[in-house]
From TrEMBL:
Pfam families: Peptidase_M1 (PF01433), Peptidase_M1_N (PF17900). Residues 1-27 form the signal peptide. It is an enzyme of class 3 (hydrolase). InterPro entries: Aminopeptidase_N-like_N, Aminopeptidase_N-like_N_sf, Peptidase_M1, Peptidase_M1_aminopeptidases, Peptidase_M1_dom, Peptidase_M4/M1_CTD_sf. Its EC number is 3.4.11.2. The keyword Zinc applies. It comes from Pendulispora albinea. Keywords: Hydrolase, Metal-binding, Metalloprotease, Protease, Signal, Zinc. It catalyses: Release of an N-terminal amino acid, Xaa-|-Yaa- from a peptide, amide or arylamide. Xaa is preferably Ala, but may be most amino acids including Pro (slow action). When a terminal hydrophobic residue is followed by a prolyl residue, the two may be released as an intact Xaa-Pro dipeptide. This is Aminopeptidase N. It comes from the Bacteria. Its cofactor is Zn(2+).
Length: 500
């Protein structure tokens, strides 16, 4: 039996609450909740169980965008379960639970599954879901059909458009992704380690990937098409990069020059955030994406970041997310600052490390780039609202909030806070309030006023953190060399994150 982990705590509490609120209900069992109650997306995730592992064994036909096969889910019940839910938007033909056919009903992207026998609390169970559909034709789908394949990369919702799941960052699991595609040069790239490919009957070739570290569902990706894939090692880990065949010319050169810095960036970020938490690194570049996403172990970048020059800021940003968002995720989507604020600040630290502008200089320029009248200053970073999680303020004011913490506690305590947060909550989740408590505990300082100013209050603060504001002096202050690249990166990330 697995030891109790932080990531299972919320669901275990749901089971305890059931026991406390009605003993008679326990004997008879009951259904799991259809969602985890996230204030922005209340039906995301599912109550009553905790997923341990997903095993996807699928076939994909690029010409028709037909995706079919079986996903096997290994989970543990955290209460006696007579029924449970799956987040899924594709058409299902059969669901088996512990080898027996189960009844199921569907409402939109929610399946309710009734197993043949009640599932006892604390016991593992297995669910096999067989399905076939055209993901790009499903209402609301974020699956992208490309000219020679497909792309499943998005946030906060992508999993439900290609595999059934408990679709919330609280319920992390490990993954095996095995997809057969035509044996005509079509390639499949996903998370983690590449386990090899093998030719099958019917003119197909199966590609196998394994991700051994707990991963949120939205951070599991697949891209299918014609790619050049490079396999190497860095720091003893698989280091895999992939470039779509229609990424060419200067864009390809710029992209390669940027992603080739990934091992250096991982090494640097490990020095400030703590040990790299996963078993592989790398990156993928595609033309069919208008943003970049920090999918676990192998960020995926749209070509817009590399159209005019190499861009290591975006590589620093997305790889910082391997700690901030991937290793430790926001417990609900309200806590998105714990992802984007720190990934933004990683760009500032990377610039400082390379001598292209200190974090203080970038903070000054960021603050000075928007007048007090800008709507930018009216976003409450600690609670931006559903659909507004990727507003520019979450990045830039979010980065200013991180710098304000650094100024308030000093470098020694600041970097100790970052490493402590990552270590204590590894493969789990946290809230802004818990981060504040950790910061105060580690630093020994009261920090509520700092966080109130930068995270919880509308309006432009009187000055940037660490500097008294003098309008004339700021107007005359030259922008640090890295600032233009950072701002362009944030424009693409914030304005186009939900373009699809």
């Amino acid at each position: 039996m697995r030891s109790l982990s932080l990531r299972r705590f919320p669901k275990i509490m749901l089971g305890i609450a059931t026991v406390l609120l009605g003993g008679s209900a326990i004997a008879a069992g009951g259904p799991g909740a259809p969602g985890l109650g996230d204030p922005y997306y209340p039906n995301d995730g599912n109550g009553g169980y905790d997923v341990d592992h997903y095993d996807l064994r699928l076939t994909y036909r690029p010409s028709s965008d037909q995706l079919s096969g079986t996903t096997t889910i290994k989970a543990t019940a955290v209460q006696d379960l007579t029924a449970f839910n799956l987040d899924f938007a594709l058409s299902v033909s059969a669901i088996n639970v512990n080898g027996a056919a189960a009844r199921f009903t569907r409402s939109g992207a929610e399946y309710t599954v009734t197993p043949a026998a009640e599932l006892p609390a604390s016991k593992p169970f297995t669910v096999e879901v067989t399905y076939s559909d055209v993901p790009s034709r499903v209402s609301g789908s974020t699956w992208v059909k490309t000219s020679n394949g497909a792309l499943a990369v998005n946030e906060p919702h992508i999993a439900r458009y290609w595999f059934p799941s408990s679709d919330h960052p609280r319920d992390k699991a490990t993954f095996d992704v095995s997809i057969a595609v035509p044996d005509d040069g079509t390639t499949v790239v996903s998370n983690g380690a590449f386990l090899g490919s093998a030719v099958e009957t019917g003119g197909l070739k199966r590609w196998n990937w394994r991700n051994v570290n707990p991963t949120a569902t939205y951070l599991t990706f697949v891209t299918i098409g014609k790619f050049t894939v490079n396999h190497a090692t860095a720091g003893g880990r698989p280091y895999i990069t992939a470039y779509a065949s229609n990424v060419t010319g200067a864009t390809l050169t710029n992209a390669r020059n940027s992603l080739n810095r990934t091992p250096d960036i991982i090494d640097y970020e490990s020095s400030v955030f703590g040990p790299y938490p996963f078993a592989a690194i790398g990156g993928v570049v595609v033309p069919n994406l208008s943003f970049a996403l920090e999918v676990q172990t192998r960020p995926v970048y749209g070509t817009a970041f590399f159209g005019s020059r190499a861009n290591t800021s975006v590589v620093a940003h997305e790889n910082a997310h391997q700690w901030w968002g991937d290793n430790v995720s926001g417990d609900t989507w309200r806590n998105i600052w714990l992802h984007e604020g720190f990934a933004t600040y990683a760009e500032w630290l990377w610039s400082e490390h390379n001598g292209t502008g200190t974090a203080q200089q970038i903070a000054n320029s960021t603050y000075n780039s928007r007048p007090a009248s800008s709507s930018f200053w009216q976003v409450v970073v600690a609670n931006p609202g559903a659909g507004n999680e990727f507003n520019a303020a979450i990045y830039d004011r979010g980065g200013l909030a991180v710098h304000a913490l650094r100024v308030a506690v000093g470098d020694t305590a600041f970097f100790n806070i970052l490493k402590t947060w990552q270590s204590e909550r590894k493969y789990s989740t946290g809230t802004i309030e818990q981060f504040i408590a950790t910061s105060e505990r580690v630093s020994g300082k009261s920090l509520q006023a700092v966080f109130n100013t930068w995270l919880f209050t509308r309006g432009r603060p009187a000055s940037p953190p660490g500097a008294a504001f003098d309008a004339e002096a700021f107007a005359a202050e030259p922008e640090p060399p890295a600032f233009a690249e950072i701002q362009e990166t944030h424009r693409l990330l914030a304005e186009q994150h939900h373009a699809h």
